[in-house]
Amino acid sequence: MGPRNVPAESNTLNRTGDRGNKFHEVGVLSQTSSPVRREVGRLSFAMKSHEHNEVDLEDGKAGKGIEKPVHRKLPNQALLSGLAYCISSCSMILVNKFVLSSYNFNAGISLMLYQNLISVIIVVVLSLMGLISTEPLTWRLIKVWFPVNVIFVGMLITSMFSLKYINVAMVTVLKNVTNVITAVGEMYIFNKHHESRVWTALFLMIISAVSGGITDISFHAVGYAWQIANCFLTASYSLTLRKIMDTAKQVTKSGNLNEFSMVLLNNTLSLPLGLLLVFAFNEVDYLYETPLLRLPVFWCVMTLSGFLGLAISFTSMWFLHQTGATTYSLVGSLNKIPLSIAGIVLFHVPTSLQNSASIFFGLLAGVFFARAKMREKS
């Protein structure tokens, strides 16, 4: 749900929200108020330290020849990056929920468009300042990437619409269905076979999603329909990205396509497409009539959501560099637990013991899935 270039739990760095995914849900994809320049500076330092010193924070071991002060500093970097990632990803979803539900803002596409515009501006400014490097957006690259971007925009919009009608806790549980669809897609498209532990976790996710929906006191059919569509689009984005990535790299000038370039590419291409959808869904009349756009506080909240969306991309890359894919995946799953609790408490969601048990069961299934995937890769 902010700009994420790869989906979140699939988990993907999804924007995620998932924009989040956020890079965050292939790891979109998913998003703070601190200056982005400072965060990027830390990210650059972290990358250089990791490359030059070869520190394995997963095993807690450092290579030879590393000075003691550097060794003491890196664990703090890992902790700070992990906290930044968790805070930004949770905040992005909660702020979006606040804008769409508490303010009753009925223009989710416009919100997405505004967030992506903020991301484009920030990335371009950082690139011009030399803090990050991005690939030039050539017509060859745009033509290759356009199909991925269409799915990306659909993923963000359906996430916005579902979040308006469904409480945050149920959204996090229902997003587990994305993992099921992705696993099946990997099996048929990439001939990838999963271990029994992975399929067991996926089965538990389906059970939790179904039981959670049945016991959901605030059940909304339209919201659930949008969320199911979001699961299919998020999985499609993850699978399509893997197929398109190699082709996209071949048409770049450097022969590479880093995360910053993907953030810029996705969000830039989403602007004209999002603008067309604003007119197609007749949000222009609503924007002209709503008094919300005359409130400075509302603009501040929307702008904050845009910064959080981009922060997910930055913090997820920073955290992934400081630790590794295993820790990143597990923390992403564990992060859903406080997010779900915060969503229920902050928005006063009516719930029952059965529904709470289904949500908790689904969250544990997500953690079990992350651990099963780790063992599968090892």
Compact description:
By secondary structure, this protein is mainly α. 72% of the residues lie in helices and 1% in strands.
What is the string of SSEs from the N terminus onward? Answer: EEHHHHHHHHHHHHHH
The end-to-end distance, rounded to whole angstroms, is 30 Å
Structural class based on helices, strands and sheet pairing: mainly alpha
The outline comes out as: globular
Mean pLDDT: 79
User: How many beta strands in the DSSP annotation?
Assistant: 2
Main β-sheet, in a few words?
2 strands, antiparallel
How large is the share of residues in beta strands?
under 5%
Portion of residues within helices: over 70%
Instruction: Specify Rg, calculated over alpha carbons.
Output: 20 Å
Order of adjacent strands in the largest pleated sheet:
1-2
Count of discrete alpha- or pi-helical segments spanning 4 or more residues: 14
Low-pLDDT stretches are 1-74
Descriptive report:
By secondary structure, the chain is mainly alpha-helical. Helix 3 packs across helix 11 (296-322), helix 4 crosses helix 9 and helix 5 (168-174) runs antiparallel to helix 13 (336-346). The protein is globular and about 50 Å long. The protein is built from 14 helices and two strands, in the order ββαααααααααααααα. The protein has helices at 36-53, 68-102, 108-128, 139-165, 168-174, 176-189, 196-214, 221-250, 259-280, 283-289, 296-322, 325-334, 336-346, 353-377; strands spanning 15-16, 19-20. A two-stranded antiparallel ribbon has the order 1-2.
